[in-house]
Amino acid sequence: DYLPFHPDFLIGNVPKIEPVSYYKALNKFFEKIEQETGRPVVVAAHPKADYSKNPFDGRAIVFGQTHRLVRDARLVIAHQSTAVSYAVIFRKPLVLLFSEDMRRADYHVYSVMARTSEVLNCPLIDFTQEPPSSFDTKVDQDGYDEYHRRFLSNSDDMRTSHEIVVSTLKNWAAHGHEPNKQQSTGGTSWN
């Protein structure tokens, strides 16, 4: 999420997250994950990130391949990003990370993370504290189904995304204009 330098933090009066302590704590957490799993942590970069100087202690940073990295991962670690939806789609275990600095900087983002953790029944861990001795890497199928139903699909339209896109494009081509603006676009919000 590129949090210490995230472009959204430049808009409005959002307190910044101090980068040195953020990356130090995050790297310590990553070390713990690597020790426990025996696998390297690979960072899926935020598209607007500038990592000309690698803040992840030399770990691989990959741009534009989040979907592939999540698909091939054994464990997904995220704050609140598209990676969460990919973890649900690909049925990957998920650990959500926060810090008190993040909570203070943007409580809304933290509250979405907390609700996501509840729905998916996945750990929400303060990565600035001592890491847990082990990580729960199971997938709660019911929670993932619920998240997918509520936030990644439209229960009124059971077509696949591919079918919706093809149908829409055919409709545009046939009528020479955009589809009816009153047509439901789906989506939902946290209740």
Brief account:
The chain is mainly alpha-helical and 191 residues long. Helices cover 42% and strands 8% of the residues.
What is the number of beta strands?
A: 5
Q: Give the strand content.
A: 5-15%
Low-confidence stretches: 179-191
**Helix vs. strand class:** mainly alpha
Oligomer: single chain
- Fraction of residues in helix: 40-55%
Mean pLDDT: 82
Outline: globular
| Contiguous helical run count | 7
- End-to-end span in angstroms? 25 Å
Order of helices and strands: HEEHEHEHHEHH
Largest sheet descriptor:
3 strands, parallel
Q: State the strand order across the main sheet.
A: 3-4-5
Alpha carbon gyration radius: 19 Å
Q: Can you give a write-up of this model?
A:
- The protein has 191 residues and is mostly helical.
- The protein contains 7 helices and 5 strands; from the N terminus they run H-E-E-H-E-H-E-H-H-E-H-H.
- It has helices at residues 19-37, 66-72, 82-89, 100-105, 107-120, 141-151, 161-175; strands at residues 43-44, 61-62, 76-78, 94-98, 124-126.
- Strands 3-4-5 form a 3-stranded parallel β-sheet. It has a two-stranded parallel sheet with strand order 1-2.
- Helix 2 (66-72) packs across helix 3 (82-89) and helix 5 (107-120) packs across helix 6 (141-151).
Give the tags:
3-stranded parallel β-sheet; disordered C terminus; about 190 residues
List the SSEs and their pairings.
Blueprint (H helix, E strand, L loop, with lengths): L18 H19 L5 E2 L16 E2 L3 H7 L3 E3 L3 H8 L4 E5 L1 H6 L1 H14 L3 E3 L14 H11 L9 H15 L16
Parallel strand pairs: 1-2, 3-4, 4-5
Helix pairs in contact: 2-3, 5-6
